[in-house]
Structure formats: structure tokens, C-alpha cells
Design goal:
Elements lengths: L3 E3 L6 E2 L2 E5 L2 E7 L2 H8 L9 E3 L3 E6 L2 E6 L3 E3 L10 E9 L2 H7 L8 E3 L1 H7 L1 H5 L8 H4 L1 H12 L5 E5 L5 H15 L2
Parallel strand pairs: 4-9, 9-11
Antiparallel strand pairs: 1-8, 2-6, 3-4, 3-5, 6-7, 7-9, 10-11
Length: about 180
């Protein structure tokens, strides 16, 4: 029989992915996030660039945000996953088709930097979402989850971006890779 322990950071786990591109950490929310980012980081060539899928745990140290994969519970004797944390440098929201049409007035796919509060608004579903069926309001109330996210990320130097909807996650991934390789060095 396996014994389990609860994560001490279960309120910090969000429905997002964490990837590393050219040594920089990305917290990714939105539509088609996993497939597009796998293409962007060329995951098949270097699987170490895929840090967390759907269970992105966020922590803050001083003015820096870190992320790693963590589930709300783990088996006793399993090492604390925070040892695999990476610094997050960028927040990305991959928009749905409707949001793309509202935000982008051009038909040319482009990545745009957005203000922190706009990113929070665009990412409301991912930040507010919880699979936890327990009655802990902080884990199941979307407004409280947004407040916790702000507590963990506000006042940091993380840049926020909106990625337009595209018909192909491959094309979206290539757009992300090209944009950030050109702009992060």
C-alpha cells in the first residue's frame, strides 16, 4: 500500500505548461499551448526543455518567479519536485480564435507584448481553473486563485505576451521560436 503526502504548495499549482527556450523559462497558458511549445522548443531533440504539463507550480523568491511540475499529492519517499524548479522569464497566453480576432486587427500573425493586468484578464480560465474537488475555497474559487497568482507574480520583471490563434500548432510553434530567438538574446 502506498502512502501519499499532500503538496505544501497545492494552492500554487495552475493549469499551465512550463517550457525552457534558449535557457529562458516560459509559463504558458491558453489554446494549443503544449503542442505549439513542443514545436517551439524542438522537444523531440531535447526533451529537457519540457518542464511541466498542465500542473505548473509557481513560487516566488524575492523578485523572481520560479516554476516546476508538481501534483497536489505524491507518494511518500518521492523527492520534493521543487528541486527541479527553473526561473520563469516570460508569461505567454495562446489566444483562442475569438480573442485573436478581437485583439489583432491584422491578418498577419504577430506576437504582442501585453501589460501584466491584460495578461491576467486573458488568462483567467487557466489561472482560475482547478481540478481539486475538495472544499478549500482558495483552491476552487477562481477569484481567490487569481489573487494568489498575483501574490506570486506581481511586481516581478516578467514580460507578458499574447500569441495569436493559428490553424496549426506547428506554425504557431515556429512563430514563437522565431520571435523569441530573435528577441531574447
Amino acid at each position: 500500500m502506498l502512502d501519499f503526502i499532500k503538496s505544501s504548495r497545492e494552492e500554487n499549482i495552475y493549469y499551465g505548461d512550463i517550457f525552457k527556450l534558449d535557457g529562458k523559462g516560459f509559463l504558458v497558458f491558453g489554446s494549443g499551448k503544449t503542442q505549439a511549445m513542443r514545436e517551439a522548443v524542438n522537444e523531440s531533440a531535447n526533451p529537457e526543455n519540457e518542464i511541466a504539463l498542465d500542473m505548473a507550480c509557481i513560487t516566488k523568491e524575492n523578485d523572481k518567479v520560479f516554476g516546476h511540475f508538481e501534483m497536489p499529492i505524491r507518494g511518500k519517499g518521492i523527492e520534493d519536485p521543487i528541486k527541479n524548479k527553473i526561473q520563469i522569464h516570460y508569461f505567454i497566453n495562446m489566444l483562442q480564435e475569438k480573442s485573436t480576432k478581437e485583439i489583432f486587427k491584422t491578418s498577419t500573425p504577430a506576437i504582442v507584448e501585453v501589460e501584466y493586468n491584460d495578461f491576467i484578464h486573458l488568462s483567467g480560465f487557466n489561472i482560475g481553473f482547478s481540478t481539486d474537488m475538495l472544499e478549500n475555497p482558495l483552491k476552487t474559487n477562481p477569484k481567490l486563485r487569481v489573487e494568489k497568482f498575483k501574490q506570486l507574480t506581481e511586481g516581478t520583471l516578467i514580460k507578458c505576451y499574447a500569441i495569436p490563434w493559428m490553424n496549426s500548432e506547428i506554425e504557431k510553434g515556429q512563430l514563437v521560436r522565431n520571435y523569441f530567438y530573435e528577441n531574447i538574446n
